Fold:
Amino acid sequence: MASQSLDEMVNEHYGSKGLLDRILSTARDNGVVLDGACSDDFSPVAEFHIGGRAATIDLAKMAQLSLGDKVIDIGSGLGGPARTLAEQFAVEVEGIDLTHEFCAVANELTRITGLTDKAIFFQGDALSLPSDSNKYDVVWTQQSCMNIENKPQMFAEAYRVLKSGGTFVFQEVFAGDQGGSIALPVPWAREADMSFLWTSDAIRNAVLGAGFMEVIWKNATNQYLEEYRILAANTGNAENASKMGAHLMLGSEARLMRKNVVDNLGQGLISIYQGVFKK
Structure:
Protein backbone atom coordinates (compact mmCIF):
# COMPACT_ATOMS: atom_id res chain seq x y z
CA MET A 1 0.00 0.00 0.00
CA ALA A 2 1.45 3.38 -1.03
CA SER A 3 2.20 5.83 1.74
CA GLN A 4 0.19 9.03 1.90
CA SER A 5 1.59 12.27 0.53
CA LEU A 6 1.88 15.22 2.89
CA ASP A 7 -0.98 16.93 1.03
CA GLU A 8 -3.20 13.91 1.65
CA MET A 9 -2.20 13.78 5.29
CA VAL A 10 -3.01 17.48 5.78
CA ASN A 11 -6.44 17.09 4.15
CA GLU A 12 -7.17 14.03 6.27
CA HIS A 13 -6.00 15.76 9.47
CA TYR A 14 -8.03 18.95 9.01
CA GLY A 15 -10.94 17.61 6.97
CA SER A 16 -13.99 16.90 9.07
CA LYS A 17 -17.15 15.66 7.38
CA GLY A 18 -20.22 17.64 8.38
CA LEU A 19 -18.19 20.54 9.78
CA LEU A 20 -20.38 23.25 8.25
CA ASP A 21 -23.55 21.65 9.59
CA ARG A 22 -22.06 21.44 13.09
CA ILE A 23 -21.00 25.08 13.01
CA LEU A 24 -24.36 26.37 11.77
CA SER A 25 -26.33 24.15 14.16
CA THR A 26 -24.23 25.37 17.09
CA ALA A 27 -24.67 28.98 15.99
CA ARG A 28 -28.46 28.61 15.90
CA ASP A 29 -28.52 26.84 19.27
CA ASN A 30 -26.60 29.77 20.75
CA GLY A 31 -29.00 32.37 19.44
CA VAL A 32 -27.14 33.54 16.35
CA VAL A 33 -29.52 34.75 13.65
CA LEU A 34 -27.71 33.61 10.53
CA ASP A 35 -29.22 36.29 8.30
CA GLY A 36 -27.56 38.90 10.51
CA ALA A 37 -24.40 37.06 11.53
CA CYS A 38 -21.05 38.84 11.76
CA SER A 39 -17.54 37.44 11.55
CA ASP A 40 -17.08 37.30 15.32
CA ASP A 41 -20.05 34.93 15.72
CA PHE A 42 -17.84 32.20 14.22
CA SER A 43 -14.44 33.32 15.53
CA PRO A 44 -14.14 30.72 18.35
CA VAL A 45 -13.93 27.97 15.72
CA ALA A 46 -12.76 29.94 12.67
CA GLU A 47 -9.85 31.69 14.44
CA PHE A 48 -8.40 28.72 16.29
CA HIS A 49 -4.81 30.02 16.22
CA ILE A 50 -3.25 31.08 19.53
CA GLY A 51 -4.65 34.45 20.60
CA GLY A 52 -7.76 34.06 18.43
CA ARG A 53 -9.46 37.14 16.98
CA ALA A 54 -7.51 39.49 19.27
CA ALA A 55 -4.22 38.23 17.83
CA THR A 56 -5.53 38.81 14.30
CA ILE A 57 -6.37 42.41 15.15
CA ASP A 58 -3.02 42.89 16.91
CA LEU A 59 -1.20 41.56 13.86
CA ALA A 60 -3.19 43.75 11.46
CA LYS A 61 -2.31 46.84 13.48
CA MET A 62 1.35 45.84 13.48
CA ALA A 63 1.20 45.49 9.70
CA GLN A 64 -0.55 48.87 9.36
CA LEU A 65 -3.16 47.60 6.92
CA SER A 66 -4.69 50.31 4.75
CA LEU A 67 -8.18 50.77 3.32
CA GLY A 68 -8.54 48.76 0.12
CA ASP A 69 -5.33 46.73 0.49
CA LYS A 70 -5.35 43.52 -1.52
CA VAL A 71 -4.38 40.68 0.81
CA ILE A 72 -3.60 37.03 0.22
CA ASP A 73 -4.04 34.83 3.30
CA ILE A 74 -1.91 31.69 3.00
CA GLY A 75 -3.37 28.82 4.99
CA SER A 76 -6.67 30.65 5.41
CA GLY A 77 -8.45 27.81 7.20
CA LEU A 78 -12.12 28.52 7.88
CA GLY A 79 -11.68 32.14 6.87
CA GLY A 80 -11.91 33.69 10.32
CA PRO A 81 -8.92 36.03 10.04
CA ALA A 82 -9.86 37.05 6.48
CA ARG A 83 -13.38 38.01 7.55
CA THR A 84 -12.04 39.92 10.54
CA LEU A 85 -9.65 41.83 8.29
CA ALA A 86 -12.41 42.58 5.77
CA GLU A 87 -14.82 43.75 8.49
CA GLN A 88 -12.43 45.65 10.70
CA PHE A 89 -9.88 47.03 8.22
CA ALA A 90 -11.84 47.27 4.94
CA VAL A 91 -9.33 45.22 2.93
CA GLU A 92 -9.97 42.65 0.20
CA VAL A 93 -8.76 39.13 0.95
CA GLU A 94 -8.12 36.04 -1.15
CA GLY A 95 -7.60 32.98 1.00
CA ILE A 96 -5.62 29.94 -0.08
CA ASP A 97 -5.75 26.66 1.82
CA LEU A 98 -4.70 23.10 1.04
CA THR A 99 -7.79 21.60 2.71
CA HIS A 100 -10.76 21.51 0.34
CA GLU A 101 -13.38 21.37 3.08
CA PHE A 102 -11.92 24.42 4.80
CA CYS A 103 -12.33 26.46 1.62
CA ALA A 104 -15.93 25.32 1.14
CA VAL A 105 -16.85 26.15 4.74
CA ALA A 106 -14.96 29.47 4.60
CA ASN A 107 -16.86 30.57 1.51
CA GLU A 108 -20.23 29.66 3.01
CA LEU A 109 -19.55 31.43 6.32
CA THR A 110 -18.39 34.44 4.32
CA ARG A 111 -21.63 34.41 2.34
CA ILE A 112 -23.65 34.17 5.55
CA THR A 113 -21.80 37.14 7.06
CA GLY A 114 -22.33 39.23 3.92
CA LEU A 115 -18.65 39.56 3.06
CA THR A 116 -18.42 37.79 -0.28
CA ASP A 117 -17.44 41.05 -1.98
CA LYS A 118 -14.48 41.33 0.39
CA ALA A 119 -13.22 37.78 0.93
CA ILE A 120 -13.08 34.63 -1.19
CA PHE A 121 -11.30 31.30 -0.70
CA PHE A 122 -9.61 28.82 -3.04
CA GLN A 123 -7.89 25.49 -2.60
CA GLY A 124 -4.22 25.96 -3.33
CA ASP A 125 -0.65 25.19 -2.34
CA ALA A 126 1.55 27.67 -0.47
CA LEU A 127 4.54 26.34 -2.42
CA SER A 128 2.97 27.22 -5.78
CA LEU A 129 0.50 30.05 -5.30
CA PRO A 130 -2.13 30.34 -8.06
CA SER A 131 -1.49 34.07 -8.38
CA ASP A 132 0.31 36.52 -10.62
CA SER A 133 3.57 38.08 -9.50
CA ASN A 134 3.53 41.53 -7.85
CA LYS A 135 -0.23 41.31 -7.21
CA TYR A 136 -0.84 41.86 -3.48
CA ASP A 137 -0.23 44.66 -1.03
CA VAL A 138 -0.07 42.19 1.85
CA VAL A 139 0.85 38.52 2.21
CA TRP A 140 -0.68 37.26 5.46
CA THR A 141 -0.39 33.94 7.25
CA GLN A 142 -1.29 32.75 10.74
CA GLN A 143 0.02 29.42 11.92
CA SER A 144 0.19 27.62 8.59
CA CYS A 145 3.94 27.11 8.38
CA MET A 146 4.00 24.21 10.84
CA ASN A 147 2.76 21.76 8.18
CA ILE A 148 5.13 23.04 5.49
CA GLU A 149 8.47 21.29 5.12
CA ASN A 150 9.93 23.47 2.35
CA LYS A 151 9.69 26.82 4.12
CA PRO A 152 12.15 28.66 1.85
CA GLN A 153 9.87 27.89 -1.11
CA MET A 154 6.87 29.26 0.79
CA PHE A 155 8.75 32.49 1.55
CA ALA A 156 9.94 32.73 -2.05
CA GLU A 157 6.33 32.47 -3.25
CA ALA A 158 5.25 35.11 -0.72
CA TYR A 159 7.94 37.41 -2.09
CA ARG A 160 6.96 36.70 -5.70
CA VAL A 161 3.27 37.60 -5.37
CA LEU A 162 3.89 40.69 -3.23
CA LYS A 163 4.07 44.16 -4.78
CA SER A 164 7.25 46.18 -4.35
CA GLY A 165 6.98 47.89 -0.97
CA GLY A 166 4.36 45.38 0.13
CA THR A 167 4.13 43.72 3.53
CA PHE A 168 4.65 40.11 4.58
CA VAL A 169 3.10 39.56 8.01
CA PHE A 170 2.77 36.36 10.00
CA GLN A 171 2.18 34.67 13.34
CA GLU A 172 3.73 31.23 13.58
CA VAL A 173 4.61 28.40 15.93
CA PHE A 174 8.37 27.78 15.99
CA ALA A 175 10.56 25.26 17.71
CA GLY A 176 11.49 26.53 21.16
CA ASP A 177 14.87 27.13 22.73
CA GLN A 178 15.00 23.84 24.65
CA GLY A 179 15.08 21.40 21.75
CA GLY A 180 13.59 17.95 22.05
CA SER A 181 10.41 16.32 20.80
CA ILE A 182 7.06 18.00 21.40
CA ALA A 183 4.11 16.30 23.06
CA LEU A 184 1.56 15.08 20.50
CA PRO A 185 -1.15 15.37 19.32
CA VAL A 186 -1.35 19.12 18.75
CA PRO A 187 -3.91 21.02 16.63
CA TRP A 188 -1.65 20.93 13.56
CA ALA A 189 -0.44 17.32 13.81
CA ARG A 190 -1.29 13.99 15.36
CA GLU A 191 2.00 12.45 14.27
CA ALA A 192 5.53 13.84 14.12
CA ASP A 193 5.76 13.40 10.35
CA MET A 194 3.21 16.22 9.86
CA SER A 195 4.97 18.78 12.05
CA PHE A 196 7.89 20.79 10.68
CA LEU A 197 9.01 23.29 13.31
CA TRP A 198 12.06 25.47 12.77
CA THR A 199 13.78 27.67 15.32
CA SER A 200 13.13 31.41 15.28
CA ASP A 201 16.65 32.09 13.99
CA ALA A 202 16.22 29.62 11.14
CA ILE A 203 12.88 31.14 10.11
CA ARG A 204 14.21 34.68 10.36
CA ASN A 205 17.21 33.83 8.21
CA ALA A 206 15.01 32.09 5.63
CA VAL A 207 12.66 35.08 5.38
CA LEU A 208 15.58 37.47 5.00
CA GLY A 209 17.13 35.07 2.51
CA ALA A 210 14.01 35.35 0.35
CA GLY A 211 14.75 39.06 -0.02
CA PHE A 212 12.56 40.61 2.67
CA MET A 213 13.55 43.47 4.98
CA GLU A 214 12.70 43.15 8.67
CA VAL A 215 10.36 45.69 10.29
CA ILE A 216 9.09 43.84 13.39
CA TRP A 217 10.30 40.58 14.96
CA LYS A 218 8.48 39.70 18.16
CA ASN A 219 8.36 36.75 20.54
CA ALA A 220 4.65 36.76 21.47
CA THR A 221 4.68 33.60 23.59
CA ASN A 222 4.13 35.29 26.93
CA GLN A 223 1.56 37.68 25.48
CA TYR A 224 -0.91 34.91 24.71
CA LEU A 225 0.18 31.98 26.89
CA GLU A 226 -1.99 32.55 29.97
CA GLU A 227 -5.12 33.25 27.91
CA TYR A 228 -4.48 30.11 25.88
CA ARG A 229 -3.90 28.12 29.07
CA ILE A 230 -7.39 29.08 30.25
CA LEU A 231 -8.89 28.34 26.82
CA ALA A 232 -7.25 24.91 26.77
CA ALA A 233 -8.55 24.07 30.24
CA ASN A 234 -12.09 25.00 29.19
CA THR A 235 -11.97 23.14 25.87
CA GLY A 236 -14.06 20.00 26.07
CA ASN A 237 -15.77 20.92 29.34
CA ALA A 238 -19.38 19.76 29.42
CA GLU A 239 -20.66 23.31 29.88
CA ASN A 240 -18.79 24.46 26.75
CA ALA A 241 -19.52 21.43 24.57
CA SER A 242 -22.57 23.07 23.02
CA LYS A 243 -20.79 26.38 22.33
CA MET A 244 -18.81 27.52 19.31
CA GLY A 245 -15.24 26.26 19.52
CA ALA A 246 -12.38 24.28 18.03
CA HIS A 247 -13.91 21.01 19.26
CA LEU A 248 -16.37 21.28 16.35
CA MET A 249 -13.40 20.78 14.03
CA LEU A 250 -10.87 18.84 16.11
CA GLY A 251 -13.39 16.55 17.79
CA SER A 252 -12.77 14.66 21.01
CA GLU A 253 -9.01 15.28 20.85
CA ALA A 254 -9.39 19.08 20.99
CA ARG A 255 -8.77 19.37 24.72
CA LEU A 256 -5.70 17.11 24.68
CA MET A 257 -4.29 18.93 21.66
CA ARG A 258 -4.59 22.29 23.36
CA LYS A 259 -3.25 20.96 26.66
CA ASN A 260 -0.20 19.67 24.80
CA VAL A 261 0.34 23.09 23.22
CA VAL A 262 0.30 24.67 26.68
CA ASP A 263 2.72 22.04 28.01
CA ASN A 264 5.03 22.47 25.00
CA LEU A 265 5.01 26.25 25.40
CA GLY A 266 5.62 26.01 29.13
CA GLN A 267 8.58 23.66 28.64
CA GLY A 268 10.14 25.86 25.96
CA LEU A 269 9.67 23.22 23.27
CA ILE A 270 7.71 25.62 21.06
CA SER A 271 7.30 29.39 20.86
CA ILE A 272 4.98 31.91 19.17
CA TYR A 273 6.46 34.63 16.98
CA GLN A 274 4.99 37.51 15.00
CA GLY A 275 6.83 39.16 12.15
CA VAL A 276 6.37 42.07 9.77
CA PHE A 277 8.66 42.30 6.74
CA LYS A 278 8.76 44.47 3.64
CA LYS A 279 9.59 43.68 0.01
Notes: The domain at 6-278 is CATH 3.40.50.150 (Rossmann fold). The two ends are 45 Å apart (CA to CA). The chain has a mean pLDDT of 93. Strands lie at 70-74, 92-97, 119-123, 136-142, 162-175, 213-219, 270-278.
